[in-house]
Write a structure and sequence with these properties.
about 425 residues, alpha+beta, conserved putative lor/sdh protein from methanococcus maripaludis s2 fold, Elongation Factor Tu (Ef-tu), domain 3, 20 strands
Amino acid sequence: MSASRPQPPHPSRRKWWVVGAVFLVIAALIGWRLGGKPGAAKGARKAAGPVVVVTAQAETRNVPVRLVANGTVTANQSVDLRAQVTSTVKEIHIREGQSVRSGELLFTLDRGTEEANLKKALAQVEKDQADFATAQRNLQRQVELFNQKFISQAALDTAKNQVDTLTGQLAIDRAAVDGARVALTYTEIKAPFAGRTGIINVRPGSLVQPSGNINTASTTAGAPPLVTVAQIDPISVAFTLPERELPGLQRALAAGPVTAVAVPQASGEKFTGKIVFVDNNVDTTTGTIRLKAEFRNPQARLWPGMFVTVQVSPRTIENATVVPAQAVQTGPDSRFVFVVDGDHKVAQRSVTLAYVEEGFAVVDGVRPGARVVVEGAQNLRPGSVVAEAERGGPATAEEPAKAEERKGRKARAEKPA
């Protein structure tokens, strides 16, 4: 009788054995990961070492407060020249856009009518002077006759009244002569100040009237002027500042001239002048006050209508604590800085921001000489250990690690056995 042969395992049983083995391997891996994580994390934290940061020292100095505003260049003076008598333009002595001196002749009007009126007034004066002389001689004779009792008091009074009347008439005639002479000067239109001319709106032969200048006999009140003259040297810049700056500005003006710097947006060239006008009221809509600064402009680099940036320093913060602006951090409740102490640990200090300019900030809450973190603050928490690097020459990551290693070796060597 032959022995029976063993039967191979069923395929389904083999499959379940393989699946079980896989699950055991996975469970072992998960257990190893969970068991080794705290130690790994602890080792990582231990190997991380101090945080490398760039620091700077808080300084004490006087800081001028610089205010920046947008301004518009305006002519220091501008006048529309119009005719003061009815006449025609005889001659034009200027060109459009020409620079003129104060008192320079610009237009000559026909002066025939004014010259005739002056001659008539002078003739009237001569006539009345002759009548006055006759009246005086007549009064003298009347006085002699009255003294001899040949005429009455009434006749003498009539002679005196004649002299008084002609005296008044002569005064009227002389005033008429002065008026005619003044009207004659109106036929020559001169520049009231040195400046630059604009568009000339008349030509020789144009009829001009006191209400405007026109080319017809009708009067047009809205007619343009003969020409506009604007003073551009010196020239002004109009701008506004917040009303909160008014007290400091007033104190500065009381102490002396306040300097203003104008920078055209197109060229970037700087012009230095001084504030010459502060408005007498604050604009209630914007909460600003209007000011003007005056600048020398011999080469006409500033032009009326240009937009410029105006910088004014009306006051100075004395003995201010200054830190790099990058060192000031903004938290949910206030601003703060990280200060490094003697143990290379950082502490958070709340600060009040008094003034900020490009590159630095004036703060209250940090003592002068303290070292504040400028770069690397995003990796810090209060109490963090840091490795400092001067601003402008930050240390590499290897240097603080080597320093910590040397410090550890020294401590182990000094430890008693």
